[in-house]
Design brief:
The complex is a heterodimer.
Chain A: E1 4-9, H1 13-16, H2 21-29, E2 34-40, H3 46-59, E3 63-68, H4 71-84, E4 92-96, H5 98-102, H6 108-127, E5 135-138, E6 142-146, H7 150-161, E7 165-170, E8 184-185, E9 190-191, H8 192-205, E10 209-213, E11 215-223, E12 226-233, H9 248-252, E13 258-259, E14 268-269, E15 272-273, E16 285-286, H10 292-298, H11 308-312, E17 325-331, E18 333-336, E19 340-342, E20 368-370, H12 371-378, E21 399-406, H13 422-436, E22 441-446, H14 456-465, E23 470-473, E24 476-482, E25 485-492, E26 497-503, E27 505-510, E28 512-514, H15 518-525, E29 552-554, H16 564-582, E30 586-589, E31 594-596, H17 606-610, E32 616-622, E33 628-635, H18 645-649, E34 655-657, H19 662-673
Helix pairs in contact in A: 2-6, 3-4, 6-19, 7-8, 7-16, 12-13, 13-14
Chain B: H1 2-13, E1 19-25, E2 30-35, H2 38-41, E3 44-45, H3 63-68, E4 71-75, H4 77-88, E5 97-102, E6 139-141, H5 153-163, H6 166-177, H7 185-189, H8 214-227, H9 237-241, H10 248-263
The chains are: A alpha/beta, B alpha/beta.
């Protein structure tokens, strides 16, 4: 026979003002099976909790109902109190008479009646509660970091320094990401490579980091604490164990005119290449699309068309026959840091809805470039060795026009968000320009200058006040080539006049977009993403680096446009979250997970198809002799999040959600209806 | 007929299968046959009286046929959808059954009918049939006969019901379902009702009242119809099995149309087409989410 104790909380005036708590306690006390029913000012306070513990001990309660606030608020508190008094914590439930009653009603009589109903429903449920045990699952104390840009590097280093093993996967031949392409960084104008490359080397040398460059995540199985990740090692055509990075192969390569990705197509590279001299690892890769040997093969030539790199390699590291390999890594947590790419200004658009800016002449006028291309022109390691020369004729541009918000804040072109970093990098560009070309004129077309951040507004002011950048508020309607100059037609909305500028070069401050292929990766990881493809955080304020899948974290510009300080801060935050997870020997999970009755399951696997977490597995049922009787569904408690979709879908109702069984729900409905 | 008998005999003789499920002449019209030897295979028939769907015998819940060993089953186009349904919902491995398809020109509602196939005797599902030649069959026999005679009677009845008010429809179904005696013959005859324990038999809690009281009858028939929404293969067995002539086919067909309009799913004999339950598409209607 059930012996239920009911504890009605006034929550100060929060509940007490609208609900007659004493009447609730009195009415509920008359229900069969309720042996104890009291009200108190603050149940969550120490004396309030003591009331519960005392009643459990003295009256031998078999179940507890706390009629108070939302279970989100204090279910843990009261379950801990019940557990402390020797009752299984899952025999304690809450009836929400605050958010669901007192806060939303005014009529005291009616609200009190409703509070009685709400409490009665939970009493009927608790009568059918059974003790549940917390699920404990082991943790693999290794982390996978996807993406080797500054966010991935920071996360990997913080994790490894914190004692965790790290697998860092980068899809390009070298780590470093976009930061390695930058010339200088705001708001301090320190050289990007000077601060980044030591960190890259640190990653390479760290005993607890396994660097996997030129690799991609192919598949992910498992769940928090126990992921199994399949990683594709793309064929470099160079044996990493033999290569010592001497560079002889690149000198020998006959193909020398491949547009360099690292230099944003402003420079050239060979077919066997390292992206930049400070690459980590410093091991070249053969670009099979452009390599003479592979092109010859593709044309079906019997004789090898080339082989100069192989001849030049003293260590015999060139391996034309190398193929993609797959390795499996077991990890307990995953940090996604895949970064960004720039909005495509020209004709080729990666997604429907993005329209590009044909009117700005990008791709047809050579002296119209984007922000990253300007970085390469300004960079000492760039194609012009740091001299600012325009791409068309190599002349020093005396007049540069910068356009902000190209792609961003423009729903008509497909992106309505603010790309956040452009105001700052445009200010930086005008300064870099003036520092290199002292008589140069920089004009910036802007919508408004957004420079929130430590030292940021001072930085943009400096561009205007010290380095003479001219800021014109307004948009540009057209950019076209007119003889030797690039004509910019715009409108100054402060003066209300049209503006026409004969520029030598135009730089478009294009918006950040998530990396191509992010949707596929997000689907592989079962994390959600917004309509732009940015990974969704679990809570925009309170859980900024977690995702909706337990054990998967997010850092940097794959979550939203981020600058370097933001990315680094997020990466460290994600690392701290992972290290917090790894500080447990075993992970504790709420036991409110689904369970399949194998005897009744017919194995139609509707549950498998509807499970959003991939928690449903196949289990063989055999007789004593080992003959296969049937294959049934089985829920992995480590993956199950207790959403109950399988329970609702099962046609024969052979799945139960622990703590929310059909019987409990049925009893609740009956308590309300009968 | 000879082609079918020869094929069955050959499959049995070469040991490809141990039993061939087909139809044979019985004391009262045609009846299901379980041919395990050449003599029995020689008695198999196929004509417009072969209205029964034999696929329910392959459902794992019915173990009698399984005990005989590997089976071949003779299917019409409608029955083939049931094979696909069982494969789709992992009740049957496609390689565990040999499917013999028969080209069909419509069947008579009553397998014991002495009348020939005519617009008056044709089964409800046949007029307008577009799957008279099972695509998933391993072997297909016979010549394709003329299309089934007559016009769809169900279209008229559904249109008639749709034209009525909600109250009138309620009265109609109260009258029809009120006759239900809860014998569950509809469930036993259905190829897609393969649960080990039907939800109607669950007692803790008892979701479906077990008595033939109107409330229980409604709960049962609505549950059955909803569980088959989009999954029903339209073989007509439930309606044929019903001892009190409830027009279950109308319920099934209406729900099949809803599933088709709302989710673009139509029961097919291609097992690779995913089940409507649990197959999520981005453009699924979701106006019910507030």
């Amino acid at each position: 026979m059930a012996r239920i104790g009911v504890f009605v909380c006034h929550c100060g005036e929060n509940i007490g003002r609208t609900v007659d708590c004493a009447r609730v306690a009195g009415e509920i006390g008359k229900l069969p099976g309720v042996v104890h029913s009291v009200d108190y000012k603050y149940m969550c306070s120490d004396p309030g909790q003591a009331l519960i513990k005392q009643a459990i001990a003295e009256k031998g309660l078999t179940g507890v109902v706390v009629s108070a606030c939302s279970p989100h608020m204090h279910e843990r508190t009261f379950r801990r109190a019940a557990g402390g008094a020797g009752l299984n914590p899952f025999l304690c439930e809450m009836a929400n008479i605050r958010e669901h009653c007192s806060w939303i009603h005014e009529d005291r009589e009616a609200a009190t009646d409703k509070a009685i109903d709400l409490a009665r429903v939970i009493v009927e449920k608790v009568k059918r509660n059974v003790p549940l045990e917390t699920i404990r699952i082991p943790v693999e104390k290794r982390a996978l970091v996807i993406g080797g840009g500054i966010a991935g590097i920071q996360a990997a280093l913080d994790l490894a320094d914190g004692g965790a093993e790290v697998v860092l996967v980068e899809k390009e031949p070298s780590i470093g990401g976009h930061m390695s392409q930058l010339s200088e960084t705001f708001p301090t104008l320190d050289c990007s490579q000077c601060i980044l490359t030591p960190r890259m080397v640190e990653v390479y040398q760290h005993p607890r980091i396994r660097l996997m460059a030129y690799c991609e995540v192919d598949a992910v199985e498992g769940y928090i604490g126990n992921f199994k990740v399949t990683i594709r090692q793309k064929a470099r055509s160079v044996d990493e164990t033999k290569c010592n990075g001497c560079g002889a192969c690149q000198k020998a390569c006959v193909v020398k005119n491949v547009p360099s990705e690292f230099d944003e197509r402003l420079g050239k590279r060979t077919a066997i290449y390292v992206p930049f001299p400070q690459a980590v690892p410093n091991i070249p890769v053969i670009d099979r699309e452009h390599c003479a040997y592979f092109k010859g093969r593709a044309r079906g030539m019997k004789k090898d068309a080339c082989g100069k790199c192989k001849e030049a390699c003293a260590r015999g590291a060139i391996d034309f026959a190398q193929e993609d390999r797959f390795v499996t890594e077991k990890v307990g947590a995953i940090v996604v840091a895949t970064g960004y790419e720039l909005y495509s200004i020209g004709k080729d658009q990666p997604a429907a809805g993005l329209k590009g800016y044909g009117e700005y002449g990008y791709g047809t006028v050579p002296d119209v470039i984007d922000g990253l291309q300007f970085e390469r022109l300004a960079s000492a390691s760039g194609p012009t060795a740091g001299k600012l020369l325009r791409p068309s004729d190599g002349k020093v541009p005396k007049k540069i026009v910068f356009l902000q918000c190209v792609g961003s804040r423009d729903p008509a072109k497909g992106i309505d968000y603010c790309s956040k970093v452009c105001c700052m990098y445009v200010a930086k560009h005008t300064m870099l320009y003036r520092h290199k070309v002292h008589d140069g004129e920089a004009t910036v077309f802007y919508m408004d200058v957004r420079a929130a951040g430590k030292g940021y507004d001072e930085f943009t002011r400096r561009a205007v006040e010290e380095d003479g950048a001219v800021y014109v508020r307004g948009r540009v309607s057209r950019v076209y080539r007119d003889g030797d100059v690039v004509k910019v037609l715009g409108f100054d909305t402060l003066n209300g006049t049209p503006v026409e500028i004969d520029a030598d070069m135009v730089v478009l401050a294009t918006a950040m977009r998530p990396r191509k292929g992010i949707e596929k990766l997000a689907q592989t990881l079962s994390v959600s993403y917004d309509r732009h493809g940015f990974i969704n955080e679990a809570h925009p304020k309170l859980r900024p680096v977690e995702t909706n899948t337990a054990g998967v974290f997010v850092a940097g510009a794959c979550q939203a446009p981020r600058d370097i300080p933001d990315s680094v801060a997020m990466a460290s935050a994600a690392a701290a979250k992972v290290l917090g997870l790894f500080s447990n020997e075993m992970l504790e999970r709420e036991p409110t997970v689904a369970r399949v009755d194998a005897a009744l399951c017919a194995g139609c696997f509707h549950c498998e198809r509807v499970c959003p977490y991939g928690a449903v597995e196949h289990k063989e049922v055999r007789d004593r002799k080992g003959n296969l009787l049937k294959v049934v569904a089985d829920v992995n408690p480590g993956v199950c999040q207790g959403c109950g979709t399988c329970q609702a879908t099962c046609p024969s109702k052979s799945v139960e959600l622990m703590g929310f069984t059909d019987e409990q729900i049925y009893a609740e409905v009956n308590a309300l209806a009968l | 007929m000879k082609e079918l008998r020869d094929l069955a005999t050959k499959l049995l003789a070469e040991g490809t299968v141990n039993v061939v499920l087909g139809w044979e002449e019985g004391p009262r019209g045609v009846r299901p046959a379980f041919a395990t030897d050449a003599a029995a295979a020689g008695r198999l028939v196929f004509d417009p009286r072969c209205t029964q769907n034999l696929v329910p015998y392959l459902s794992p819940r019915r173990t009698q046929v399984k005990k005989l060993g590997k089976a071949a089953v003779v299917v019409k186009g409608c029955d083939a959808r049931a094979v696909a349904g069982l494969v789709r919902e992992t009740q049957l491995a496609r390689e565990d059954v040999v499917v013999i398809g028969v080209r069909c020109g419509g069947v008579i509602a009553d397998p014991a009918s002495p009348e020939p196939l005519s617009p008056a005797t044709v089964a409800d599902r046949c007029p307008g049939c577009n799957s008279r030649e099972p695509k998933l069959a391993d072997h297909t026999v016979g010549e394709l006969p003329a299309a089934p005679p007559g016009e769809s009677r169900r279209d008229v009845r559904i249109a008639d019901l749709e034209a009525r008010t909600a109250d009138e429809r309620w009265a109609f179904w109260q009258d029809e379902l009120g006759r239900c005696v809860r014998c569950h013959a509809c469930r036993e005859a259905c190829p897609m009702c393969f649960c080990e324990r039907c939800v109607a038999d669950k007692t803790q809690p008892q979701w479906v009242d077990s008595s033939p009281h109107p409330r229980g009858a409604f709960a049962w028939n609505v549950t059955r119809a909803l569980h088959l929404a989009g999954r029903c293969v339209d073989c007509g067995e439930c309606e044929r099995a019903c001892p009190v002539d409830i027009p279950l086919g109308l319920l099934n067909l209406k729900l099949a149309r809803v599933a088709s309009e709302r989710f673009g799913y139509t029961a097919t004999d291609d097992p690779a087409v995913p089940s409507p339950v649990g197959s999520f598409q981005k453009d699924d209607a979701q106006e019910f989410i507030l």
